[in-house]
Design goal:
Blueprint: E1 5-7, H1 12-20, E2 26-27, H2 41-57, E3 64-74, E4 77-79, H3 85-95, E5 99-110, E6 117-127, H4 132-140, E7 161-165, H5 168-172, H6 176-185
Helix pairs in contact: 3-4
């Protein structure tokens, strides 16, 4: 019967991940102001993903709305998208040579009024030591400027990733396996 699925995100990476698992959907980016009541990374991403899904559900007709938000956290400090190149350099200096966490919150709202789905997935990422020159060259590539924590694991930064513990797709921006399985457990198949 075909559900109208709305992705409340402008992220090209989230679009690619949903397409990869065979989901048909429309994109309607949430534009609202983010309001936080916590600084715990997993709770922050759950709040923001729910805000995005609710905002878009209030504007666009659909059957199911998916909101997502990703942050990078090191020593309890949340790293969002860099404000400028120097901010990207600062973030990468914090991340190089050690491990950090990537948390993605996912919220799914249903037009039929059933209970929303909300969860946060966390993946630990280990980064090789990087020289100042390597950090600055990576920032000059432009790749880190629209990404939480100032890096994209699926791009040039892969040269500096020594390993991960958890879901790779979560670091890219959407834990699609868990999303699919959580919805399937509720009787919803994203691919139908």
């Amino acid at each position: 019967m075909g559900k109208k699925i709305i992705l409340a995100s402008g992220s090209p990476r989230r679009r690619e991940l949903l397409k990869q698992i065979g989901v048909s959907f429309e994109v309607h980016k949430a534009e609202g102001e983010e309001k936080l009541t916590t600084d715990v990374p997993q709770e922050v991403v759950r709040e923001l993903s729910m805000q995005k899904a609710r905002e878009v559900a209030g504007k666009v007709s659909g059957d199911l709305y998916i909101g997502a938000d990703t942050v990078v956290a090191v020593d309890g400090q949340i790293l969002g998208k860099p404000k400028d190149e120097e901010d990207a350099v600062r973030m990468l200096q914090l991340l190089q040579g050690r491990a950090h966490e990537v948390a993605t919150g996912v919220a799914v709202l249903f037009a039929d009024g059933r209970e929303p789905l909300s969860f946060a997935e966390t993946t630990r990422v280990h980064v090789f030591p990087m020289t100042e020159e390597e950090i600055r060259a990576y920032v000059q590539s432009g790749e880190p400027m629209d990404k939480a924590g100032a890096y994209g694991i699926q791009g040039l930064f892969a040269a500096y990733v020594s390993g991960i513990e958890g879901d790779y797709n979560n670091v890219v921006g959407l834990p699609v396996g868990r999303l699919y399985q959580e919805l399937r457990a509720r009787g919803v198949d994203l691919r139908e």
